[in-house]
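Review form for a predicted model. The reviewer records the input and the model, then writes brief findings.
Reviewer: anonymous (R2)
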Amino acid sequence: MKKRRNRRQEGSVFLDPRTKIWSFRYRDASGKRKAERIGNMKQFPTKSKAKDAAEPLRLRINSPEAESGITLEKVAQRYVLERMPSRHSTSRGYRGKLKIVLSKWGAETLPLKPHKVEAWLKSLKSNKGTLY
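Model under review:
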C-alpha cells in the first residue's frame, strides 16, 4: 500500500459582511467544517492582518497534538508545573482532588461532556457527604 503524505491545512479567513467579524474556517480530523472567530474590523482592518492573527490557530490545528487530542491529564500536568500554588497545605489539597479526578477522567480528551461529569460527581460520596 502506498503511503500518503501528511496533509497540512491552510484554512481560510472570511469576513462576515453583516457583523464585520473575521472568522477562520477549516476542517477538523473527521472532515467536519469548523469556524473560529478571529476578531472584528476595528481590531484587524485588512485581510492580511486577520490572516496574521489566524496563524496561531493554523499552527494549532496542524500540530500532531490536534490529531490525538488534548487529554485532561496533559492539562493537569501543565497546571501543576505552571499554576499550582506554592504553599504546601494548599497544593497538597489540590493534588488530592486532582488525583481523584484524574483516576476517572485523565485519559479523556477535551472537551468533556458536562452531563457525564455531573453524573459522576453525583455518584461520588465521601465519609462526610458529597465531594463538593
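Findings: The chain has a mean pLDDT of 82.
Further findings: The CA atoms of residues 20 and 41 lie 6 Å apart.
Recommendation: see findings above.
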